[in-house]
Amino acid sequence: MAVPALPSGYAIQEYRIERLLGAGGFGLTYLAIDTNLNLRVAIKEYLPSDIAVRNPDQSVAPNSTQSGEDFMWGKRRFLDESRTIASFRHPNIVRVMRFFEAKGSAYMVMEYVEGDALPDWIKPRRPLPEAQVMAIAGPLLEGLQVVHTTGYLHRDIKPGNIYIRYDGSPVLLDFGSARQDGKDDLTAIVTPGYAPFEQYHSNGQQGPWSDVYAFAGVLYWVVTGQRPLEAAARVREDTMQPALKAGDRNRYRPEFLAAIDWGLAPHEDDRPQSVHELRAALAGAMESKLKPAESAPPPPPPPAAPPAVYFDANFLDKVERELAQHVGPIAPVMVKKAAKKAQDPAELVQLLAADITHNGLRLKFEQRFADHSRPASRSQPTSVTPTSPSGPPSGAPISPEILSRVEALLAQYLGPVAKVVVSRAARKARDVSELYLLVADDIEDPAEKKAFIRRRISTTSKV
Predict the structure, then answer these.
(1) What pTM value is reported for the model?
(2) What is the dihedral sign for C-alpha 193, 196, 20, 25?
(3) Rounded to an integer, what distance in angstroms lies between the CA atom of residue 179 and that of residue 158?
(4) Are residues 83 and 125 in the same domain?
(5) Do residues 142 and 103 both lie within one domain?
């Protein structure tokens, strides 16, 4: 029996429930309004339907004394995984904004993606050319690599969990089945056609190659229009028509189709072991390993790299400071990467703006640098100007005692990651006040950020 969802209009902390978006075995997902920011968000509620009930006051509790231990263990894991997923920073992975406990349960607040699910988006656009397929697959694989680098697996990649935003960018959703790679509690998660055979039983050897299989299954569906045959039916005798035969050879390179077939190998040892290998294969860089049925003509030589672009250091510093207000301490890394790709200041700003998920804030960021549309100067050096001066910030160094004090205050909001945030901010801050303001940007909740800044004022008055 399904557990009833929270009613429309119900308020939990600063969020007002609008409607139910979806339900699964481990919880419910709602569309809600952040009443502080007047922002639409998606909220996932921990509610395992087989061991939990909803009480008349809308709280959640185990359905029996025997279920209590399992319920509490699941809630702890939900919060631990929310904390990890919230650390992911990639424009093509849905962003977790915060998580909290309330009403006996736990809640994860995520970016609400405005766009269309891949199955709905692709209907009027079939068949997609290979370049457009790769324009979708490439950013998603980059995001998936971020997940794998942290030691996690998605475990439920399928067309319905991929959305195309209204600006055309793809995003990977629903990390409700995500688990740490190598853990013994990898339960069976199965979406027929996309789940690899090792996910059909809890002792299967799951790893990055498992997500590779699911992603290749999505690509098979995109290029052929058919869902892959269920993995369990392919183990003894594989009767599924390979993409190399089912795909349109006038539209897709044999290497590209063969890469999809490699990713869909029934046995985990026979498929790419990492996202990097799959991406290289899709790009045609591993033809000899793929062994396609028909050899393809060698690809044309890559175009010559454009001349290096020199960006004014003061301009980069301003961009970095403005971006840090939206993405936190990772801003210097993002600016440095974007500076290697962009051919002028306008393109640099556009690349960075794509990482700001809130439409209003993204527009504000773009308008802030609207006058920097002049062409960048070309220079002979191949290196990109650093995003900040090579020397230390001006002003007296901040003492270890003050850094420890800031870290202790920030840890109440961010936990152990506060140490890293303070360390990075200290390298940029020119005084104690700026240090507090920089680290405050990493506190997602507006009320908590205000409380931290108030404490900052009272604390710095004693420094």
Answers:
(1) 0.59
(2) positive
(3) 17
(4) no
(5) no
